[in-house]
Amino acid sequence: MEINKQHKKKKWFLPLVLSLVLSTLLVFITVFTSSSSSSSKLYKTQVKNELPRFVESKLRISDTSKDPIPKLAYLISGSMGDGESLKRTLKALYHPRNQYAVHLDLESSAEERLDLAEFVRKEPLFAKLGNVRMIVKANLVTYRGPTMVTNTLHAAAILLKEGGDWDWFINLSASDYPLVTQDDLLHTLSTIPRNLNFLEHTSDIGWKESQRARPVIIDPGLYSLHKSDVFWVPERRSVPTAYRLFTGSAWMMLSRPFIEFCVWGWDNLPRIVLMYYANFLSSPEGYFHTVICNAEEFRNTTVNHDLHFISWDNPPKQHPHFLTTDDFQRMVASNAPFARKFGRNESVLDKVDTQILGCNADGYVPGGWLTIQGNTNVTVQDYIIANTTKLRPGPGAERLKRLITSLLEAEDFRANQCS
Ligand SMILES: *[C@@H]1O[C@H](CO)[C@@H](O)[C@H](O)[C@H]1NC(C)=O
Ligand SMILES: *[C@@H]1O[C@H](CO)[C@@H](O)[C@H](O)[C@H]1NC(C)=O
Ligand SMILES: *[C@@H]1O[C@H](CO)[C@@H](O)[C@H](O)[C@H]1NC(C)=O
Ligand SMILES: *[C@@H]1O[C@H](CO)[C@@H](O)[C@H](O)[C@H]1NC(C)=O
Ligand SMILES: *[C@@H]1O[C@H](CO)[C@@H](O)[C@H](O)[C@H]1NC(C)=O
Protein backbone atom coordinates (compact mmCIF):
# COMPACT_ATOMS: atom_id res chain seq x y z
CA MET A 1 0.00 0.00 0.00
CA GLU A 2 2.71 2.46 1.00
CA ILE A 3 4.69 1.92 -2.14
CA ASN A 4 1.67 2.21 -4.35
CA LYS A 5 0.75 5.60 -2.82
CA GLN A 6 4.18 7.04 -3.36
CA HIS A 7 4.15 5.89 -6.92
CA LYS A 8 0.80 7.56 -7.53
CA LYS A 9 2.06 10.82 -6.02
CA LYS A 10 5.02 10.89 -8.39
CA LYS A 11 2.74 10.26 -11.32
CA TRP A 12 0.76 13.53 -10.90
CA PHE A 13 3.52 15.64 -9.39
CA LEU A 14 5.45 16.32 -12.60
CA PRO A 15 2.46 17.51 -14.73
CA LEU A 16 1.39 19.80 -11.89
CA VAL A 17 4.76 21.51 -11.71
CA LEU A 18 4.90 21.81 -15.46
CA SER A 19 1.45 23.41 -15.72
CA LEU A 20 2.31 25.80 -12.91
CA VAL A 21 5.47 26.94 -14.67
CA LEU A 22 3.58 27.35 -17.94
CA SER A 23 0.73 29.39 -16.45
CA THR A 24 3.17 31.65 -14.58
CA LEU A 25 5.00 32.24 -17.83
CA LEU A 26 1.74 33.07 -19.59
CA VAL A 27 0.77 35.54 -16.88
CA PHE A 28 4.14 37.24 -17.11
CA ILE A 29 3.91 37.52 -20.87
CA THR A 30 0.45 39.09 -20.79
CA VAL A 31 1.43 41.51 -18.04
CA PHE A 32 4.59 42.66 -19.79
CA THR A 33 3.12 43.04 -23.25
CA SER A 34 0.19 45.17 -22.04
CA SER A 35 2.03 46.84 -19.21
CA SER A 36 2.36 50.29 -20.74
CA SER A 37 -1.31 50.80 -21.59
CA SER A 38 -2.86 49.19 -18.51
CA SER A 39 -0.61 50.92 -16.01
CA SER A 40 -1.38 54.34 -17.48
CA LYS A 41 -5.10 53.49 -17.31
CA LEU A 42 -4.67 52.53 -13.70
CA TYR A 43 -2.88 55.79 -13.03
CA LYS A 44 -5.55 57.83 -14.77
CA THR A 45 -8.42 56.37 -12.76
CA GLN A 46 -6.43 57.01 -9.62
CA VAL A 47 -6.03 60.68 -10.51
CA LYS A 48 -9.71 60.95 -11.37
CA ASN A 49 -10.61 59.53 -7.99
CA GLU A 50 -8.28 61.90 -6.22
CA LEU A 51 -10.82 64.72 -5.76
CA PRO A 52 -13.78 63.03 -4.06
CA ARG A 53 -11.55 61.20 -1.62
CA PHE A 54 -12.43 63.88 0.92
CA VAL A 55 -16.16 64.17 1.23
CA GLU A 56 -15.88 67.93 1.81
CA SER A 57 -14.79 68.52 -1.77
CA LYS A 58 -18.11 67.09 -3.01
CA LEU A 59 -20.05 69.49 -0.82
CA ARG A 60 -19.36 72.65 -2.68
CA ILE A 61 -21.05 75.96 -2.04
CA SER A 62 -24.39 75.99 -3.81
CA ASP A 63 -25.02 78.27 -6.75
CA THR A 64 -26.96 81.46 -6.34
CA SER A 65 -30.37 81.77 -7.97
CA LYS A 66 -30.78 82.99 -11.56
CA ASP A 67 -34.15 84.63 -10.92
CA PRO A 68 -33.85 88.27 -12.10
CA ILE A 69 -35.56 89.58 -8.94
CA PRO A 70 -34.13 88.36 -5.64
CA LYS A 71 -36.09 87.08 -2.65
CA LEU A 72 -35.36 87.88 0.98
CA ALA A 73 -35.84 85.86 4.15
CA TYR A 74 -36.46 87.87 7.29
CA LEU A 75 -36.31 86.96 10.94
CA ILE A 76 -38.06 89.50 13.16
CA SER A 77 -37.72 88.77 16.84
CA GLY A 78 -38.89 90.39 20.02
CA SER A 79 -39.36 89.87 23.69
CA MET A 80 -41.88 90.74 26.38
CA GLY A 81 -44.15 93.60 25.26
CA ASP A 82 -42.80 93.71 21.69
CA GLY A 83 -45.84 92.07 20.08
CA GLU A 84 -47.43 95.21 18.69
CA SER A 85 -44.23 96.75 17.35
CA LEU A 86 -43.28 93.40 15.82
CA LYS A 87 -46.57 93.34 13.89
CA ARG A 88 -45.98 96.88 12.68
CA THR A 89 -42.42 96.13 11.51
CA LEU A 90 -43.60 92.95 9.81
CA LYS A 91 -46.29 94.79 7.84
CA ALA A 92 -43.90 97.54 6.82
CA LEU A 93 -41.49 94.88 5.52
CA TYR A 94 -44.08 92.74 3.83
CA HIS A 95 -43.74 91.68 0.21
CA PRO A 96 -45.19 88.51 -1.31
CA ARG A 97 -41.82 87.45 -2.80
CA ASN A 98 -40.15 87.36 0.61
CA GLN A 99 -40.27 84.85 3.45
CA TYR A 100 -40.76 85.79 7.09
CA ALA A 101 -40.19 84.11 10.43
CA VAL A 102 -41.31 85.89 13.59
CA HIS A 103 -40.32 84.96 17.10
CA LEU A 104 -41.32 86.19 20.54
CA ASP A 105 -38.99 84.74 23.15
CA LEU A 106 -40.05 82.81 26.23
CA GLU A 107 -39.94 85.90 28.41
CA SER A 108 -43.08 87.20 26.72
CA SER A 109 -46.34 85.92 28.09
CA ALA A 110 -48.27 83.03 26.58
CA GLU A 111 -51.11 85.46 25.80
CA GLU A 112 -48.83 87.73 23.86
CA ARG A 113 -47.41 84.85 21.87
CA LEU A 114 -50.88 83.43 21.22
CA ASP A 115 -51.98 86.85 20.05
CA LEU A 116 -49.12 86.99 17.54
CA ALA A 117 -49.83 83.44 16.36
CA GLU A 118 -53.47 84.39 15.85
CA PHE A 119 -52.46 87.50 13.94
CA VAL A 120 -50.17 85.53 11.61
CA ARG A 121 -52.89 82.96 11.01
CA LYS A 122 -55.76 85.37 10.49
CA GLU A 123 -54.19 88.26 8.61
CA PRO A 124 -55.85 87.91 5.16
CA LEU A 125 -52.67 88.60 3.18
CA PHE A 126 -50.54 86.12 5.13
CA ALA A 127 -53.27 83.51 5.00
CA LYS A 128 -53.54 83.95 1.25
CA LEU A 129 -49.81 83.93 0.44
CA GLY A 130 -48.52 81.72 3.25
CA ASN A 131 -45.07 83.28 3.51
CA VAL A 132 -45.18 84.34 7.18
CA ARG A 133 -44.55 81.82 9.92
CA MET A 134 -44.20 82.12 13.63
CA ILE A 135 -41.64 80.12 15.59
CA VAL A 136 -44.18 78.71 18.02
CA LYS A 137 -41.71 76.67 20.09
CA ALA A 138 -40.24 79.83 21.58
CA ASN A 139 -36.61 80.06 22.67
CA LEU A 140 -35.28 81.51 25.86
CA VAL A 141 -33.01 84.29 24.62
CA THR A 142 -30.53 85.88 26.98
CA TYR A 143 -29.45 89.37 26.14
CA ARG A 144 -25.66 89.29 25.33
CA GLY A 145 -25.67 85.48 25.55
CA PRO A 146 -25.07 82.82 22.87
CA THR A 147 -28.79 81.96 22.90
CA MET A 148 -29.19 85.02 20.65
CA VAL A 149 -27.04 83.33 18.01
CA THR A 150 -28.78 79.97 18.44
CA ASN A 151 -32.10 81.73 17.95
CA THR A 152 -30.86 83.33 14.73
CA LEU A 153 -29.52 79.99 13.44
CA HIS A 154 -32.79 78.31 14.42
CA ALA A 155 -34.80 80.74 12.29
CA ALA A 156 -32.31 80.46 9.42
CA ALA A 157 -32.68 76.66 9.49
CA ILE A 158 -36.48 76.91 9.42
CA LEU A 159 -36.34 79.36 6.52
CA LEU A 160 -33.90 77.10 4.64
CA LYS A 161 -36.14 74.10 5.14
CA GLU A 162 -39.47 75.61 4.22
CA GLY A 163 -38.86 79.07 2.84
CA GLY A 164 -38.14 78.10 -0.77
CA ASP A 165 -35.32 79.62 -2.77
CA TRP A 166 -34.58 82.96 -1.09
CA ASP A 167 -31.30 84.80 -1.67
CA TRP A 168 -30.50 86.75 1.50
CA PHE A 169 -31.24 86.36 5.19
CA ILE A 170 -31.86 89.49 7.26
CA ASN A 171 -32.06 89.41 11.06
CA LEU A 172 -34.11 92.21 12.60
CA SER A 173 -35.77 92.94 15.89
CA ALA A 174 -39.14 94.46 16.67
CA SER A 175 -37.41 97.79 17.37
CA ASP A 176 -36.01 98.00 13.81
CA TYR A 177 -37.86 99.68 10.97
CA PRO A 178 -37.28 99.94 7.21
CA LEU A 179 -36.31 103.23 5.54
CA VAL A 180 -37.01 101.99 2.02
CA THR A 181 -39.88 100.00 0.54
CA GLN A 182 -39.40 96.34 -0.33
CA ASP A 183 -39.80 97.30 -4.00
CA ASP A 184 -36.85 99.68 -3.56
CA LEU A 185 -34.79 97.02 -1.82
CA LEU A 186 -35.53 94.19 -4.27
CA HIS A 187 -34.97 96.48 -7.24
CA THR A 188 -31.55 97.61 -6.02
CA LEU A 189 -30.47 94.15 -4.89
CA SER A 190 -31.36 92.70 -8.28
CA THR A 191 -28.32 94.52 -9.71
CA ILE A 192 -25.64 93.08 -7.41
CA PRO A 193 -24.09 89.59 -7.08
CA ARG A 194 -26.18 87.31 -4.89
CA ASN A 195 -23.18 85.91 -3.04
CA LEU A 196 -22.33 89.17 -1.24
CA ASN A 197 -22.56 89.24 2.56
CA PHE A 198 -23.14 92.58 4.24
CA LEU A 199 -21.71 92.64 7.72
CA GLU A 200 -19.67 95.26 9.46
CA HIS A 201 -16.50 93.66 10.85
CA THR A 202 -12.91 94.16 11.94
CA SER A 203 -10.10 92.05 13.37
CA ASP A 204 -9.01 95.01 15.47
CA ILE A 205 -10.80 93.80 18.59
CA GLY A 206 -9.12 96.39 20.83
CA TRP A 207 -10.72 96.67 24.26
CA LYS A 208 -12.90 93.70 23.45
CA GLU A 209 -9.88 91.43 23.91
CA SER A 210 -9.79 91.94 27.67
CA GLN A 211 -13.55 92.48 28.14
CA ARG A 212 -14.99 89.97 25.70
CA ALA A 213 -12.43 87.44 24.45
CA ARG A 214 -10.68 86.65 27.75
CA PRO A 215 -13.61 86.40 30.18
CA VAL A 216 -15.59 83.16 30.20
CA ILE A 217 -19.34 83.46 30.62
CA ILE A 218 -22.14 80.94 31.01
CA ASP A 219 -25.59 81.58 29.56
CA PRO A 220 -28.27 79.95 31.74
CA GLY A 221 -30.59 80.18 28.73
CA LEU A 222 -28.77 77.10 27.39
CA TYR A 223 -30.15 74.86 30.11
CA SER A 224 -32.62 76.72 32.32
CA LEU A 225 -36.37 77.10 32.07
CA HIS A 226 -36.26 80.63 33.42
CA LYS A 227 -34.57 83.72 32.19
CA SER A 228 -31.61 85.08 34.14
CA ASP A 229 -28.52 87.04 33.19
CA VAL A 230 -25.25 85.48 32.04
CA PHE A 231 -22.67 84.83 34.78
CA TRP A 232 -18.88 84.93 34.81
CA VAL A 233 -16.39 82.13 35.47
CA PRO A 234 -13.41 83.35 37.58
CA GLU A 235 -10.78 81.97 35.15
CA ARG A 236 -9.89 83.83 31.99
CA ARG A 237 -8.87 82.19 28.72
CA SER A 238 -6.37 83.07 26.03
CA VAL A 239 -7.24 84.42 22.60
CA PRO A 240 -7.74 81.65 19.98
CA THR A 241 -4.76 80.66 17.86
CA ALA A 242 -6.58 78.18 15.61
CA TYR A 243 -8.51 81.03 13.96
CA ARG A 244 -8.57 84.79 14.12
CA LEU A 245 -11.30 86.63 16.01
CA PHE A 246 -13.39 89.26 14.25
CA THR A 247 -15.97 91.55 15.74
CA GLY A 248 -18.54 94.05 14.51
CA SER A 249 -22.21 94.93 14.36
CA ALA A 250 -24.86 92.34 15.28
CA TRP A 251 -26.98 93.43 12.28
CA MET A 252 -26.29 91.91 8.89
CA MET A 253 -27.59 90.63 5.57
CA LEU A 254 -26.13 87.19 4.77
CA SER A 255 -26.19 85.29 1.49
CA ARG A 256 -27.91 81.95 1.17
CA PRO A 257 -24.67 80.05 0.39
CA PHE A 258 -23.11 81.37 3.58
CA ILE A 259 -26.19 80.52 5.67
CA GLU A 260 -26.10 77.00 4.25
CA PHE A 261 -22.43 76.79 5.17
CA CYS A 262 -23.27 77.82 8.76
CA VAL A 263 -26.38 75.69 9.19
CA TRP A 264 -25.54 72.49 7.32
CA GLY A 265 -22.08 72.24 8.84
CA TRP A 266 -20.22 70.07 6.30
CA ASP A 267 -17.14 72.04 7.28
CA ASN A 268 -16.41 71.96 11.00
CA LEU A 269 -15.44 75.64 11.29
CA PRO A 270 -18.96 77.05 11.92
CA ARG A 271 -19.59 74.41 14.58
CA ILE A 272 -16.27 74.86 16.37
CA VAL A 273 -16.61 78.64 16.37
CA LEU A 274 -20.18 78.30 17.65
CA MET A 275 -19.00 76.21 20.59
CA TYR A 276 -16.25 78.72 21.27
CA TYR A 277 -18.77 81.58 21.28
CA ALA A 278 -20.98 79.69 23.75
CA ASN A 279 -18.86 81.29 26.48
CA PHE A 280 -18.33 84.67 24.86
CA LEU A 281 -20.07 87.85 25.97
CA SER A 282 -22.16 89.44 23.18
CA SER A 283 -21.62 86.58 20.71
CA PRO A 284 -23.90 88.11 18.01
CA GLU A 285 -21.18 90.74 17.56
CA GLY A 286 -18.61 88.13 16.58
CA TYR A 287 -19.90 84.72 15.59
CA PHE A 288 -20.75 85.24 11.92
CA HIS A 289 -17.85 87.66 11.50
CA THR A 290 -15.31 85.13 12.75
CA VAL A 291 -16.76 82.28 10.68
CA ILE A 292 -16.91 84.22 7.42
CA CYS A 293 -13.44 85.71 7.71
CA ASN A 294 -11.81 82.38 8.52
CA ALA A 295 -13.51 80.57 5.64
CA GLU A 296 -11.32 81.02 2.56
CA GLU A 297 -14.27 80.51 0.20
CA PHE A 298 -16.32 83.31 1.78
CA ARG A 299 -13.97 86.05 2.93
CA ASN A 300 -13.98 87.59 -0.55
CA THR A 301 -17.76 87.97 -0.43
CA THR A 302 -17.90 90.35 2.53
CA VAL A 303 -19.04 93.96 2.28
CA ASN A 304 -18.06 95.88 5.38
CA HIS A 305 -21.39 97.52 6.26
CA ASP A 306 -24.42 96.48 8.33
CA LEU A 307 -27.08 98.30 6.21
CA HIS A 308 -28.42 100.00 9.36
CA PHE A 309 -28.66 103.51 10.65
CA ILE A 310 -27.85 103.24 14.34
CA SER A 311 -27.16 106.27 16.48
CA TRP A 312 -24.74 105.62 19.33
CA ASP A 313 -24.38 108.00 22.22
CA ASN A 314 -21.00 109.61 22.55
CA PRO A 315 -19.24 107.86 24.25
CA PRO A 316 -21.15 104.69 23.24
CA LYS A 317 -23.30 103.05 25.90
CA GLN A 318 -24.51 99.48 25.97
CA HIS A 319 -27.66 100.42 24.03
CA PRO A 320 -27.92 102.75 21.06
CA HIS A 321 -29.83 105.95 21.49
CA PHE A 322 -33.57 105.83 20.70
CA LEU A 323 -34.36 107.55 17.41
CA THR A 324 -36.85 110.41 17.35
CA THR A 325 -38.11 112.93 14.80
CA ASP A 326 -34.90 114.93 15.42
CA ASP A 327 -32.99 112.10 13.75
CA PHE A 328 -35.26 111.89 10.70
CA GLN A 329 -33.03 113.89 8.33
CA ARG A 330 -29.86 112.04 9.33
CA MET A 331 -31.66 108.72 8.98
CA VAL A 332 -32.73 109.48 5.42
CA ALA A 333 -29.35 110.97 4.52
CA SER A 334 -27.57 107.80 5.66
CA ASN A 335 -29.12 105.98 2.63
CA ALA A 336 -29.38 102.89 4.84
CA PRO A 337 -32.34 100.55 4.23
CA PHE A 338 -32.99 99.92 7.96
CA ALA A 339 -32.77 101.91 11.18
CA ARG A 340 -32.88 101.17 14.87
CA LYS A 341 -33.71 101.51 17.61
CA PHE A 342 -37.24 102.85 17.88
CA GLY A 343 -39.38 103.07 20.98
CA ARG A 344 -42.83 101.52 20.85
CA ASN A 345 -45.32 103.81 19.07
CA GLU A 346 -42.56 106.39 18.54
CA SER A 347 -43.95 109.29 16.48
CA VAL A 348 -41.03 109.27 14.03
CA LEU A 349 -42.36 105.92 12.78
CA ASP A 350 -45.52 107.68 11.61
CA LYS A 351 -43.33 110.12 9.74
CA VAL A 352 -41.43 107.26 8.10
CA ASP A 353 -44.77 105.63 7.20
CA THR A 354 -46.21 108.70 5.50
CA GLN A 355 -43.12 110.40 4.05
CA ILE A 356 -40.98 107.43 3.01
CA LEU A 357 -42.99 104.24 2.78
CA GLY A 358 -46.43 105.52 1.85
CA CYS A 359 -48.10 102.96 4.11
CA ASN A 360 -51.80 102.38 3.66
CA ALA A 361 -54.40 102.46 6.43
CA ASP A 362 -53.53 98.86 7.34
CA GLY A 363 -49.79 99.50 7.64
CA TYR A 364 -48.76 97.74 4.44
CA VAL A 365 -46.48 99.37 1.91
CA PRO A 366 -48.07 99.38 -1.54
CA GLY A 367 -45.84 98.46 -4.47
CA GLY A 368 -46.01 96.91 -7.90
CA TRP A 369 -47.65 93.82 -6.41
CA LEU A 370 -50.41 95.68 -4.55
CA THR A 371 -52.49 97.98 -6.69
CA ILE A 372 -54.68 100.61 -5.20
CA GLN A 373 -58.12 101.05 -6.70
CA GLY A 374 -58.48 104.80 -6.54
CA ASN A 375 -58.84 105.52 -2.81
CA THR A 376 -55.76 105.53 -0.57
CA ASN A 377 -57.91 104.79 2.47
CA VAL A 378 -58.80 101.28 1.35
CA THR A 379 -57.77 98.23 3.35
CA VAL A 380 -56.11 95.05 2.15
CA GLN A 381 -59.36 93.34 1.19
CA ASP A 382 -59.93 96.03 -1.42
CA TYR A 383 -56.52 95.57 -3.01
CA ILE A 384 -55.68 93.39 -5.94
CA ILE A 385 -52.52 91.35 -5.71
CA ALA A 386 -50.82 91.73 -9.04
CA ASN A 387 -47.67 90.28 -10.57
CA THR A 388 -45.05 90.06 -7.79
CA THR A 389 -42.11 90.49 -10.16
CA LYS A 390 -43.38 93.91 -11.13
CA LEU A 391 -41.53 96.37 -8.90
CA ARG A 392 -42.31 100.03 -8.45
CA PRO A 393 -39.07 101.49 -7.09
CA GLY A 394 -39.18 105.02 -5.75
CA PRO A 395 -36.71 107.51 -4.25
CA GLY A 396 -35.63 104.90 -1.68
CA ALA A 397 -34.15 102.81 -4.49
CA GLU A 398 -32.01 105.78 -5.53
CA ARG A 399 -30.76 106.29 -1.98
CA LEU A 400 -29.95 102.64 -1.51
CA LYS A 401 -28.21 102.50 -4.87
CA ARG A 402 -25.98 105.39 -3.77
CA LEU A 403 -25.03 103.49 -0.62
CA ILE A 404 -24.35 100.17 -2.36
CA THR A 405 -22.43 101.77 -5.21
CA SER A 406 -20.28 103.71 -2.78
CA LEU A 407 -19.54 100.49 -0.89
CA LEU A 408 -18.79 98.28 -3.88
CA GLU A 409 -16.84 100.87 -5.84
CA ALA A 410 -14.83 102.19 -2.92
CA GLU A 411 -11.10 102.17 -3.53
CA ASP A 412 -10.54 100.30 -0.27
CA PHE A 413 -13.30 97.76 -0.91
CA ARG A 414 -10.88 94.79 -1.02
CA ALA A 415 -8.72 96.21 1.74
CA ASN A 416 -11.78 96.39 4.02
CA GLN A 417 -12.54 92.69 3.68
CA CYS A 418 -11.65 90.73 6.80
CA SER A 419 -8.77 92.99 7.70
C1 LIG B 1 -30.32 89.06 15.55
O1 LIG B 1 -31.44 89.73 16.08
C2 LIG B 1 -31.49 89.98 17.46
C3 LIG B 1 -32.71 90.76 17.76
O2 LIG B 1 -33.70 89.99 18.19
C4 LIG B 1 -30.24 90.66 17.90
O3 LIG B 1 -30.26 90.96 19.26
C5 LIG B 1 -29.05 89.81 17.51
O4 LIG B 1 -27.90 90.37 18.00
C6 LIG B 1 -29.04 89.71 16.02
N1 LIG B 1 -27.83 89.19 15.45
C7 LIG B 1 -27.37 87.93 15.45
C8 LIG B 1 -26.09 87.71 14.78
O5 LIG B 1 -27.97 87.02 15.98
C1 LIG C 1 -9.95 86.18 -2.96
O1 LIG C 1 -9.38 87.35 -3.47
C2 LIG C 1 -7.97 87.32 -3.53
C3 LIG C 1 -7.47 88.70 -3.95
O2 LIG C 1 -8.35 89.35 -4.80
C4 LIG C 1 -7.55 86.22 -4.49
O3 LIG C 1 -6.15 86.15 -4.54
C5 LIG C 1 -8.12 84.89 -4.00
O4 LIG C 1 -7.81 83.86 -4.91
C6 LIG C 1 -9.60 84.97 -3.83
N1 LIG C 1 -10.07 83.75 -3.22
C7 LIG C 1 -11.18 83.11 -3.60
C8 LIG C 1 -11.50 81.86 -2.86
O5 LIG C 1 -11.88 83.52 -4.48
C1 LIG D 1 -49.87 102.66 20.08
O1 LIG D 1 -50.82 103.65 19.82
C2 LIG D 1 -52.09 103.19 19.41
C3 LIG D 1 -52.98 104.36 19.11
O2 LIG D 1 -52.24 105.46 18.79
C4 LIG D 1 -52.68 102.31 20.54
O3 LIG D 1 -53.89 101.77 20.11
C5 LIG D 1 -51.69 101.18 20.86
O4 LIG D 1 -52.17 100.44 21.96
C6 LIG D 1 -50.35 101.74 21.20
N1 LIG D 1 -49.42 100.65 21.37
C7 LIG D 1 -48.49 100.60 22.32
C8 LIG D 1 -47.64 99.40 22.33
O5 LIG D 1 -48.35 101.50 23.12
C1 LIG E 1 -59.58 108.44 5.12
O1 LIG E 1 -59.98 108.08 6.42
C2 LIG E 1 -59.93 109.15 7.36
C3 LIG E 1 -60.32 108.61 8.72
O2 LIG E 1 -60.44 107.24 8.73
C4 LIG E 1 -60.88 110.27 6.91
O3 LIG E 1 -60.77 111.34 7.81
C5 LIG E 1 -60.50 110.72 5.52
O4 LIG E 1 -61.41 111.66 5.05
C6 LIG E 1 -60.47 109.54 4.56
N1 LIG E 1 -59.96 109.97 3.25
C7 LIG E 1 -60.52 109.62 2.11
C8 LIG E 1 -59.87 110.14 0.87
O5 LIG E 1 -61.52 108.94 2.07
C1 LIG F 1 -44.82 89.81 -14.53
O1 LIG F 1 -44.09 90.98 -14.85
C2 LIG F 1 -42.87 90.74 -15.48
C3 LIG F 1 -42.13 92.06 -15.62
O2 LIG F 1 -42.96 93.13 -15.75
C4 LIG F 1 -43.10 90.05 -16.80
O3 LIG F 1 -41.87 89.78 -17.43
C5 LIG F 1 -43.86 88.74 -16.54
O4 LIG F 1 -44.17 88.13 -17.76
C6 LIG F 1 -45.12 89.01 -15.77
N1 LIG F 1 -45.75 87.75 -15.41
C7 LIG F 1 -47.04 87.55 -15.47
C8 LIG F 1 -47.52 86.20 -15.03
O5 LIG F 1 -47.81 88.42 -15.83
Automatic annotation (TrEMBL):
User: What Gene Ontology cellular component terms go with this record?
Assistant: membrane
Q: What keywords are annotated for this sequence in UniProt?
A: Glycoprotein, Glycosyltransferase, Membrane, Transferase, Transmembrane, Transmembrane helix
Where found, per UniProt? Membrane
Know the name of this protein? Glycosyl transferase
- The residues that cross the membrane are 12-32
Recorded GO molecular functions are: glucuronosyltransferase activity
The keyword Glycosyltransferase appears for this protein: yes
Provide the membrane topology annotation.
Answer: Single-pass type II membrane protein
**One Pfam family matching this protein:** Branch
Mainly resides where? membrane
